[in-house]
Amino acid sequence: MKVKHLLSIIGFSLSLFLLFGCTSSTETDVSITTTIFPLYDFTKQITQDKLKVKMILPPGNEPHTYQLKPKDILTIRNSKMFIYTGPFLEVWADKLIDVLDEDEVLVLNVSHNLELHHEDEEEEHDHDVDPHIWVDPILAMTIIDNILEYIIQIDPENASFYRENAEKYKEELSKLDLAYQDLFSKVEHKTIIFGGHFVFGYLAERYGILHVSPYKGFSPDTLPTTRNLHNLINLIQTTGNKTIFYEEMINPEVAEVLAQETGAKLLPLNGAGYISKKDFDEGVTYLDLMYQNIENLKKGLNYHE
Ligand SMILES: [Zn+2]
User: Fold this and answer.
1) Can you give the pTM of this predicted structure?
2) In angstroms, what is the span from residue 273 Cα to ligand 1's centroid?
3) How many whole angstroms separate alpha carbon 151 and alpha carbon 158?
4) Would you say 110 and 86 are in contact if contact means Cβ atoms under 8 Å apart?
5) Which of 64, 211, 213, 253 makes the best surface tag, with the fewest CB within 10 Å?
6) What is the pLDDT of residues 160-182, one digit of tens each?
Protein backbone atom coordinates (compact mmCIF):
# COMPACT_ATOMS: atom_id res chain seq x y z
CA MET A 1 0.00 0.00 0.00
CA LYS A 2 2.72 2.41 1.05
CA VAL A 3 4.83 1.48 -1.95
CA LYS A 4 2.00 1.96 -4.41
CA HIS A 5 1.30 5.37 -2.94
CA LEU A 6 4.88 6.48 -3.15
CA LEU A 7 5.27 5.40 -6.74
CA SER A 8 2.20 7.34 -7.71
CA ILE A 9 3.77 10.47 -6.27
CA ILE A 10 6.97 10.36 -8.16
CA GLY A 11 5.22 9.36 -11.33
CA PHE A 12 7.58 6.70 -12.52
CA SER A 13 8.80 3.43 -11.16
CA LEU A 14 11.72 3.32 -8.84
CA SER A 15 13.45 0.25 -7.56
CA LEU A 16 12.35 -0.96 -4.17
CA PHE A 17 15.94 -1.62 -3.38
CA LEU A 18 16.78 2.05 -3.77
CA LEU A 19 13.81 3.11 -1.70
CA PHE A 20 13.85 0.71 1.18
CA GLY A 21 16.97 -1.36 0.93
CA CYS A 22 19.85 1.00 0.76
CA THR A 23 20.20 4.57 1.80
CA SER A 24 23.96 4.80 1.64
CA SER A 25 23.90 6.81 -1.58
CA THR A 26 21.90 9.61 0.04
CA GLU A 27 22.64 11.99 2.84
CA THR A 28 21.75 10.21 6.03
CA ASP A 29 23.04 12.94 8.34
CA VAL A 30 20.44 15.53 7.35
CA SER A 31 18.50 16.59 10.41
CA ILE A 32 16.05 19.05 8.87
CA THR A 33 14.81 19.16 5.30
CA THR A 34 13.22 22.37 4.08
CA THR A 35 11.63 22.97 0.69
CA ILE A 36 12.34 26.58 -0.37
CA PHE A 37 14.97 29.20 0.29
CA PRO A 38 13.24 31.39 2.93
CA LEU A 39 12.37 28.36 5.05
CA TYR A 40 15.93 27.09 4.67
CA ASP A 41 17.39 30.44 5.68
CA PHE A 42 14.97 30.93 8.61
CA THR A 43 15.75 27.45 9.91
CA LYS A 44 19.52 28.03 9.63
CA GLN A 45 19.19 31.30 11.54
CA ILE A 46 17.72 29.34 14.45
CA THR A 47 19.91 26.24 14.35
CA GLN A 48 23.20 27.89 13.28
CA ASP A 49 25.63 24.94 13.12
CA LYS A 50 23.91 22.73 15.66
CA LEU A 51 21.83 20.80 13.13
CA LYS A 52 22.30 20.03 9.46
CA VAL A 53 19.73 21.80 7.30
CA LYS A 54 19.05 20.88 3.68
CA MET A 55 17.04 22.68 0.98
CA ILE A 56 15.10 20.53 -1.51
CA LEU A 57 14.60 23.12 -4.25
CA PRO A 58 17.96 23.41 -6.02
CA PRO A 59 19.20 27.01 -6.39
CA GLY A 60 18.05 28.38 -9.73
CA ASN A 61 14.76 26.44 -9.70
CA GLU A 62 11.26 27.85 -9.42
CA PRO A 63 9.11 26.37 -6.62
CA HIS A 64 5.57 26.41 -8.10
CA THR A 65 6.41 24.01 -10.89
CA TYR A 66 9.12 21.96 -9.20
CA GLN A 67 8.62 18.22 -9.47
CA LEU A 68 9.71 16.24 -6.45
CA LYS A 69 12.55 13.86 -7.33
CA PRO A 70 13.03 10.35 -5.90
CA LYS A 71 16.22 11.55 -4.20
CA ASP A 72 14.25 14.35 -2.50
CA ILE A 73 11.85 11.80 -1.03
CA LEU A 74 14.79 9.84 0.30
CA THR A 75 16.32 12.95 1.82
CA ILE A 76 13.04 13.84 3.52
CA ARG A 77 12.54 10.29 4.81
CA ASN A 78 16.05 10.29 6.25
CA SER A 79 15.62 13.57 8.10
CA LYS A 80 14.17 14.13 11.54
CA MET A 81 12.00 17.00 10.42
CA PHE A 82 10.42 18.23 7.21
CA ILE A 83 9.39 21.90 6.80
CA TYR A 84 7.26 23.20 3.94
CA THR A 85 5.25 26.34 3.15
CA GLY A 86 1.83 24.69 2.84
CA PRO A 87 -0.25 22.75 0.32
CA PHE A 88 -0.64 25.76 -2.01
CA LEU A 89 3.01 26.01 -2.96
CA GLU A 90 4.31 22.47 -2.48
CA VAL A 91 1.25 20.88 -4.05
CA TRP A 92 2.83 17.45 -3.74
CA ALA A 93 3.27 17.72 0.04
CA ASP A 94 0.01 16.08 1.15
CA LYS A 95 0.72 12.90 -0.80
CA LEU A 96 4.27 12.83 0.43
CA ILE A 97 3.20 13.21 4.05
CA ASP A 98 0.85 10.24 3.66
CA VAL A 99 3.82 7.97 3.11
CA LEU A 100 6.10 9.43 5.79
CA ASP A 101 6.42 7.65 9.10
CA GLU A 102 5.17 10.18 11.67
CA ASP A 103 7.35 8.68 14.35
CA GLU A 104 10.44 9.15 12.21
CA VAL A 105 9.86 12.53 10.54
CA LEU A 106 8.24 15.50 12.26
CA VAL A 107 6.27 17.48 9.65
CA LEU A 108 5.73 21.23 9.84
CA ASN A 109 3.45 23.20 7.53
CA VAL A 110 4.64 26.70 8.48
CA SER A 111 1.43 28.39 7.30
CA HIS A 112 -0.87 26.16 9.37
CA ASN A 113 -1.78 28.98 11.78
CA LEU A 114 -1.67 31.88 9.29
CA GLU A 115 -4.62 33.46 7.56
CA LEU A 116 -3.97 33.03 3.85
CA HIS A 117 -5.25 35.29 1.07
CA HIS A 118 -7.67 33.97 -1.50
CA GLU A 119 -7.95 35.49 -4.94
CA ASP A 120 -11.70 35.14 -4.80
CA GLU A 121 -13.38 34.75 -1.41
CA GLU A 122 -16.19 32.72 -2.97
CA GLU A 123 -13.95 30.05 -4.40
CA GLU A 124 -11.36 28.30 -2.38
CA HIS A 125 -9.58 26.26 -4.99
CA ASP A 126 -6.01 25.40 -4.17
CA HIS A 127 -4.51 27.47 -6.95
CA ASP A 128 -6.38 30.58 -5.79
CA VAL A 129 -4.53 30.84 -2.49
CA ASP A 130 -1.49 33.09 -2.20
CA PRO A 131 1.38 31.03 -0.74
CA HIS A 132 4.00 33.86 -0.63
CA ILE A 133 3.73 34.41 3.13
CA TRP A 134 7.45 35.02 3.74
CA VAL A 135 7.52 38.41 1.98
CA ASP A 136 5.75 39.99 4.98
CA PRO A 137 8.19 40.37 7.91
CA ILE A 138 5.37 40.14 10.45
CA LEU A 139 4.19 36.81 9.04
CA ALA A 140 7.84 35.77 8.90
CA MET A 141 7.99 36.20 12.69
CA THR A 142 5.17 33.69 13.12
CA ILE A 143 6.99 31.34 10.74
CA ILE A 144 10.07 31.66 12.98
CA ASP A 145 7.97 30.83 16.05
CA ASN A 146 6.53 27.78 14.28
CA ILE A 147 9.93 26.51 13.21
CA LEU A 148 11.39 27.11 16.69
CA GLU A 149 8.59 25.17 18.38
CA TYR A 150 9.27 22.14 16.18
CA ILE A 151 13.07 22.29 16.38
CA ILE A 152 12.80 22.17 20.15
CA GLN A 153 10.84 18.94 19.81
CA ILE A 154 13.61 17.21 17.89
CA ASP A 155 16.46 18.65 19.99
CA PRO A 156 15.12 19.70 23.42
CA GLU A 157 18.61 19.74 24.96
CA ASN A 158 19.57 22.84 23.01
CA ALA A 159 16.24 24.59 23.41
CA SER A 160 17.64 27.74 25.03
CA PHE A 161 20.23 28.16 22.25
CA TYR A 162 17.51 27.94 19.58
CA ARG A 163 15.21 30.28 21.51
CA GLU A 164 17.91 32.90 21.80
CA ASN A 165 18.72 32.73 18.08
CA ALA A 166 15.05 32.96 17.16
CA GLU A 167 14.60 36.02 19.37
CA LYS A 168 17.61 37.74 17.82
CA TYR A 169 16.35 37.01 14.34
CA LYS A 170 12.88 38.31 15.17
CA GLU A 171 14.54 41.56 16.22
CA GLU A 172 16.06 41.72 12.74
CA LEU A 173 12.64 41.10 11.21
CA SER A 174 11.27 43.86 13.36
CA LYS A 175 13.93 46.24 11.98
CA LEU A 176 12.97 45.12 8.48
CA ASP A 177 9.34 45.93 9.30
CA LEU A 178 10.38 49.45 10.35
CA ALA A 179 12.39 49.86 7.14
CA TYR A 180 9.33 48.91 5.08
CA GLN A 181 7.12 51.27 7.10
CA ASP A 182 9.55 54.10 6.44
CA LEU A 183 9.82 53.21 2.76
CA PHE A 184 6.14 53.02 1.99
CA SER A 185 5.27 56.12 3.99
CA LYS A 186 7.75 58.23 2.00
CA VAL A 187 7.35 57.04 -1.59
CA GLU A 188 5.47 59.07 -4.17
CA HIS A 189 3.92 56.06 -5.93
CA LYS A 190 2.01 53.57 -3.81
CA THR A 191 1.73 50.86 -6.44
CA ILE A 192 4.29 48.17 -7.22
CA ILE A 193 3.95 47.45 -10.93
CA PHE A 194 5.40 44.01 -11.33
CA GLY A 195 6.16 42.24 -14.59
CA GLY A 196 6.55 38.91 -12.81
CA HIS A 197 3.99 36.68 -11.09
CA PHE A 198 1.94 37.85 -8.11
CA VAL A 199 4.44 37.54 -5.26
CA PHE A 200 4.08 40.62 -3.05
CA GLY A 201 0.41 40.45 -2.03
CA TYR A 202 1.08 40.04 1.70
CA LEU A 203 3.67 42.82 1.68
CA ALA A 204 1.26 45.16 -0.11
CA GLU A 205 -1.54 44.44 2.33
CA ARG A 206 0.71 44.88 5.38
CA TYR A 207 1.87 48.35 4.31
CA GLY A 208 -1.28 49.59 2.60
CA ILE A 209 0.04 49.78 -0.93
CA LEU A 210 -1.04 48.17 -4.22
CA HIS A 211 0.67 45.38 -6.10
CA VAL A 212 -0.25 44.60 -9.70
CA SER A 213 0.96 41.78 -11.94
CA PRO A 214 -0.15 40.70 -15.42
CA TYR A 215 -0.40 37.07 -14.29
CA LYS A 216 -3.67 35.52 -13.24
CA GLY A 217 -3.51 33.68 -9.94
CA PHE A 218 -0.42 33.25 -7.80
CA SER A 219 1.74 30.97 -9.91
CA PRO A 220 4.06 31.82 -12.83
CA ASP A 221 3.09 28.71 -14.80
CA THR A 222 0.44 30.53 -16.84
CA LEU A 223 0.80 33.22 -19.48
CA PRO A 224 -0.07 36.79 -18.52
CA THR A 225 -3.50 37.74 -19.79
CA THR A 226 -3.85 40.36 -22.53
CA ARG A 227 -6.40 42.25 -20.47
CA ASN A 228 -4.04 42.46 -17.51
CA LEU A 229 -1.21 43.64 -19.77
CA HIS A 230 -3.45 46.38 -21.18
CA ASN A 231 -4.47 47.44 -17.70
CA LEU A 232 -0.84 47.69 -16.65
CA ILE A 233 0.06 49.77 -19.69
CA ASN A 234 -2.86 52.08 -18.90
CA LEU A 235 -1.79 52.34 -15.28
CA ILE A 236 1.78 53.27 -16.24
CA GLN A 237 0.61 55.85 -18.78
CA THR A 238 -1.99 57.49 -16.56
CA THR A 239 -0.18 57.57 -13.20
CA GLY A 240 3.33 58.51 -14.25
CA ASN A 241 4.54 55.58 -12.18
CA LYS A 242 7.33 54.80 -14.61
CA THR A 243 9.07 51.79 -13.10
CA ILE A 244 8.33 48.19 -13.83
CA PHE A 245 9.82 45.72 -11.41
CA TYR A 246 10.81 42.34 -12.75
CA GLU A 247 11.75 38.89 -11.58
CA GLU A 248 15.20 37.97 -12.74
CA MET A 249 14.53 34.28 -12.95
CA ILE A 250 11.02 34.05 -14.41
CA ASN A 251 9.98 35.58 -17.74
CA PRO A 252 11.70 38.96 -17.54
CA GLU A 253 10.62 39.38 -21.18
CA VAL A 254 7.08 40.20 -20.06
CA ALA A 255 8.44 43.14 -18.07
CA GLU A 256 10.68 44.07 -21.01
CA VAL A 257 7.72 44.20 -23.41
CA LEU A 258 5.82 46.40 -20.95
CA ALA A 259 8.82 48.69 -20.63
CA GLN A 260 9.22 49.01 -24.40
CA GLU A 261 5.54 49.74 -24.79
CA THR A 262 5.48 52.48 -22.15
CA GLY A 263 9.03 53.82 -21.94
CA ALA A 264 9.16 52.76 -18.28
CA LYS A 265 12.42 51.72 -16.67
CA LEU A 266 13.11 48.26 -15.26
CA LEU A 267 14.35 47.36 -11.79
CA PRO A 268 14.67 43.90 -10.24
CA LEU A 269 12.58 42.83 -7.26
CA ASN A 270 13.31 39.53 -5.58
CA GLY A 271 10.46 37.46 -4.14
CA ALA A 272 13.04 35.28 -2.34
CA GLY A 273 10.97 32.14 -2.94
CA TYR A 274 13.86 30.85 -4.97
CA ILE A 275 17.50 31.86 -5.10
CA SER A 276 20.04 31.93 -7.90
CA LYS A 277 22.99 29.58 -7.74
CA LYS A 278 25.35 32.56 -7.52
CA ASP A 279 23.52 34.16 -4.58
CA PHE A 280 23.23 30.83 -2.79
CA ASP A 281 26.95 30.09 -3.18
CA GLU A 282 27.77 33.56 -1.90
CA GLY A 283 25.68 33.03 1.22
CA VAL A 284 23.09 35.70 0.41
CA THR A 285 20.30 35.71 3.01
CA TYR A 286 16.59 36.49 2.99
CA LEU A 287 17.35 39.77 4.78
CA ASP A 288 19.97 40.70 2.15
CA LEU A 289 17.37 40.17 -0.58
CA MET A 290 14.73 42.21 1.27
CA TYR A 291 17.12 45.16 1.79
CA GLN A 292 18.12 45.02 -1.89
CA ASN A 293 14.40 45.21 -2.69
CA ILE A 294 13.99 48.22 -0.41
CA GLU A 295 16.80 50.04 -2.26
CA ASN A 296 15.18 49.33 -5.62
CA LEU A 297 11.71 50.25 -4.37
CA LYS A 298 13.11 53.58 -3.13
CA LYS A 299 14.46 54.31 -6.60
CA GLY A 300 11.46 53.02 -8.51
CA LEU A 301 8.66 54.52 -6.41
CA ASN A 302 10.38 57.89 -5.81
CA TYR A 303 11.35 57.90 -2.17
CA HIS A 304 11.78 61.30 -0.51
CA GLU A 305 12.98 61.86 3.05
ZN1 LIG B 1 5.70 32.36 -6.43
Assistant:
1) 0.89
2) 6
3) 9
4) yes
5) 253
6) 999 999 999 999 999 999 999 99
- pLDDT value of position 10: 52
Q: Do 83 and 148 fall into the same domain?
A: yes
Q: How far does the centroid of ligand 1 lie from the alpha carbon of residue 23, in Å? A: 32
- Assess whether 133 and 257 both reside in one domain: no
Q: Residues 6 or more apart from 37 whose CB is under 8 A from it? A: 55, 57, 59, 272, 273, 274, 275, 280, 286
Which residues form the domain of 71?
2-173
- Residues 273, 155 share a domain: no
CATH number for the domain spanning 140: value is 3.40.50.1980
Query: Could you read off the pLDDT of 64-88 as tens digits, one per residue?
Result: 889 999 999 999 999 999 999 999 9
8 Å CB contact between 178 and 184: no
Four-CA torsion 120, 121, 124, 129, nearest 10 degrees: 60
Rounded Cα distance, 291 and 108, in Å: 28
**Domain identity same for 19 and 87:** yes
- Specify if 305 maps to a domain: no
Residue 247 has pLDDT above 70, yes or no: yes
Q: How far is the CA of 199 from the centre of ligand 1 (A)?
A: 5
Determine the Cα–Cα distance for residues 110 and 39; give it in Å rounded to an integer: 9
CA of 305 to the centre of ligand 1 (A): 32
Distance, CA 97 to ligand 1 centroid (Å)?
Answer: 22
Q: What per-residue confidence (pLDDT) applies to 220? A: 83
Cα angle vertex 16, ends 12, 21, to 5°? 145
